[in-house]
Amino acid sequence: MRLAIRVDASPNIGAGHAMRCITLAKALRQAFKANNIQLEVTAVSTQGANMLEAAFKSADISITYVPQIESNVDHIKAEIWVVDHYKLDAKFESELIDDGAMVVVIDDLANRKHNCHLLIDVNLSEHSEQRYTSLVPKGCSQLIGPKYALLREEFYQARQKNFTRKPKHVLVCFGGSDPTNTTFTALQALAKVKELSLTADVVIGAGNIYKQAVIKQARLIDGVTIHINSGNMAELMCKASLMISAGGSMHWERCACDLPGVVITIADNQREATEYLALLGGCDYLGHVSSVSSDDIATSLRNHFSTDAKDINAQTDLNKIVPLGGGAPLISKEIISLIDNRDNVRGLSIEKH
């Protein structure tokens, strides 16, 4: 059986979409193997959006490139398609349906129609369950909420280990590419609160275009360690006492590790979930990157760590938001169930577009 994934990764788009697709592909491969079925996986990306080519290859996922985002992919024959792309919608997906494929869509914008058998949106919002009601076919299965967050297995394993949190230790990460260079702003904030005697781990990707400036700034601050393409993100989260980060998938990684967070959104699609998570007490939301300065971050750090400040443990039981037993293995079971019932997929009525 063949799985094809339509996803891009670039400094502008970021790596999050591709990384969660790799996580799902690994889980599906394992699930199919348990059923004595070999699953071949192909990633389909736009020319130039190849930031994670090495990551795909290390996961034994072949790569095919197409000239444009909307390019036809009917030359790639796959029984299952996973589509994770903000620029694609029901028009693209309908062509896959017409070719006889089962289509799984990963999305969180809820701003366009999809034609799919299964839709996954891991974000939180006040009306999560109703966001896609008018945007997908009536029979489409919807997996909504952080229970289905496509986290790497290390984040679920980490909570089983007894890592010791370092007091007054901060983890800084704004994704591998960090196109807004908010990592640098966070380092400026750390330089302004030297009286707190904080230490920090700072994680960036090898493709970060601001890498040299970040490294130079980090060298000016005692107790800061730079990690490039970290392979132990879950361990770093479990050892920190506070994280300064963006929204998106890092919310759920942080919650899985029960780590309090100061959050600055770096993309518009991160705002709604971050605002709702803050309302639930799941983070301290400072605002969108366009309106947050290093002074704002420094003030938040003082609020968290000063001797007369609020308790650092005000954000509690975060790992209940991302429970064990969820994520990619749970989604894999749902996909296999849909395949097993392919002739009558829950009364599914796929629309023509």
Note down, in words, how this protein is organized.
The chain is α/β, with parallel strands linked by helices. The chain has two domains: 2-150 and 327-344, Rossmann fold (3-Layer(aba) Sandwich), CATH 3.40.50.11190; 154-320, 3-Layer(aba) Sandwich (Rossmann fold). The protein is built from eleven helices and 13 strands. The strands form two sheets. Strands 3-2-1-4-5-6-7 form a seven-stranded parallel beta sheet, with helices on both faces. The protein has a six-stranded parallel beta sheet with strand order 10-9-8-11-12-13, with helices on both faces. Helix 1 links the parallel strand 1 (2-6) and strand 2 (40-46). The protein is globular. The protein starts with a strand and ends in a 13-residue tail after the last helix.
Quick description:
By secondary structure, this protein is α/β, with parallel strands linked by helices. It has helices at residues 16-34, 53-58, 90-98, 153-158, 182-192, 211-218, 233-239, 249-256, 271-279, 294-305, 328-340; strands spanning 2-6, 40-46, 62-66, 80-83, 102-106, 118-121, 141-144, 169-173, 199-204, 224-228, 242-245, 261-265, 284-288. α1 (16-34) packs across α11.
Topology:
Elements: E1 2-6, H1 16-34, E2 40-46, H2 53-58, E3 62-66, E4 80-83, H3 90-98, E5 102-106, E6 118-121, E7 141-144, H4 153-158, E8 169-173, H5 182-192, E9 199-204, H6 211-218, E10 224-228, H7 233-239, E11 242-245, H8 249-256, E12 261-265, H9 271-279, E13 284-288, H10 294-305, H11 328-340
Helix pairs in contact: 1-11, 5-6, 5-10
Give the CATH architecture of the largest domain.
3-Layer(aba) Sandwich
Poorly predicted regions are: 344-353
Proportion in β-strands: 15-25%
Task: Count the domains.
Answer: 2
Radius of gyration: 21 Å
CATH domain class name of the largest domain: Alpha Beta
Described by strand count, sense and barrel closure, the largest sheet is:
7 strands, parallel
Q: Name the helix and strand elements from N-terminus to C-terminus, one letter apiece.
A: EHEHEEHEEEHEHEHEHEHEHEHH
Overall mean pLDDT: 91
What level of helicity do the residues show? 25-40%
Distance between the terminal alpha carbons, to the nearest Å?
27 Å
Count of DSSP-assigned helices: 11
Spatial sequence of strands, sheet with the most strands? 3-2-1-4-5-6-7
Total number of β-strand segments?
13
Structural class: alpha/beta
Predict the CATH topology of the largest domain.
Answer: Rossmann fold
